[in-house]
Design goal:
mainly alpha; Hypothetical protein af1432; 68% helix; HDIG_dom; HD_domain; HD/PDEase_dom; Metal dependent phosphohydrolase
Length: 198
């Protein structure tokens, strides 16, 4: 990682909690997935990596301001990138990728980099890491197992069919199978009745 990217990483790390459903550890995993998928899909890393680093920077602000984190994150990224004189021709594509990454934003990712970021963010909500993050998220919102299983059905089990890139679709198949096996087992155990004592 070059000096410019290392400075960006430090800037983002300072804005996010170290861990949690959307902590800095999530951002690090998304960056790694972007590197892997982006290399296979021919993405421009000068666009993709800054977008991945900044994609959730405004998550901690969303609850207090009510501004969607993808919009505020795009604004923060644009301000930061201009302040460090990042190549101007890259900035609009970085901003678009941040705005389009969110599952529920309704903005279609229109560039290879935006599609890779969307896929990487969704992949981190799948498989075993997705299971762990779902229970962390439920706890952060004062919920329990039922809230977590609701999230599996409302969102996570739909993610496999929302992948844009060939590379991500391949990764998603394995992670989806894990989710299905887990939720079937969990719901089976939750439905098990203990026989009354005789």
């Amino acid at each position: 990682m070059n000096e410019e990217m290392a400075a960006m990483l430090d800037y983002v790390r300072a804005a996010l909690p170290e861990s949690g459903a959307h902590g800095f550890d999530h951002t690090e995993r998304v960056v790694r997935l972007c590197e892997r998928i982006g290399a296979q899909e021919g993405a421009d890393m000068a666009i993709l990596i800054p977008a991945a680093l900044f994609h959730d920077i405004a998550r901690p602000l969303e609850e207090e301001t009510g501004v969607p984190h993808e919009e505020e994150g795009a604004r923060i990224a644009e301000s930061y990138l201009r302040s460090v004189r990042y190549p101007e021709d890259c900035i609009p594509a970085i901003i678009h990728a941040i705005r389009a990454h969110r599952y529920s934003s309704g903005i279609a990712p229109e560039t290879p980099e935006a599609r890779v970021l969307s896929d990487a963010d969704n992949l981190d909500a799948m498989g075993t890491i997705g299971i762990a993050r779902t229970f962390i998220r439920a706890g952060e919102h004062g919920g329990g197992i039922a809230d977590a299983t609701g999230h599996f059905h409302d969102k996570l089990l739909n993610l496999r069919d929302r992948m844009y890139t060939t590379t991500a679709r391949s990764i998603a198949e394995e992670r989806h199978a894990l989710l299905v096996a887990f939720i079937e087992t969990l719901e089976g155990e939750m439905g098990a009745r203990i026989p009354p004592e005789s």
